[in-house]
Amino acid sequence: xGCGASIKGLKRTKxxxxxxxxxxxxxxxxxxxxxxxxxxxxxxxISIERLLDKNPSLYxxxxxxxxxxxxxxxxxxxxxxARTEDNNLxxxxxxxxxxxxxxxxxxxxxxxxxxxxxxxxxxxxTLTKSIVIFRQLNKI
Length: 140
Known about the structure:
about 140 residues, Archaeosine Trna-guanine Transglycosylase, Chain: A, domain 4, two-stranded antiparallel sheet, extended
């Protein structure tokens, strides 16, 4: 049109599978407008697996589980390559699920550099840095 423009407001109504009409506002949540049971039994709760279903997974060897739970970055020597998809492209800046041998997501890490899984098997590279760690508490 060849002219300037401005916008007064913008509202995102959908991103991927997530829609505004199946969400609650932070304000309503903080004001306690929902009971805990309402939130747990409804579509408002999204599992971390569903949230990151399109993100790659790195499986780590059991002997390194403790290291990851204590915030250590994942290096190529820690990866269980037999379980990690060989055609995975690790893209810099993408979040990856760090899984143990029992399929538990124990952490979310950010990938530090672009690599193809098959290319890192024989190299000693630091692949990720820790973003979130999931600790499982023992129930009494």
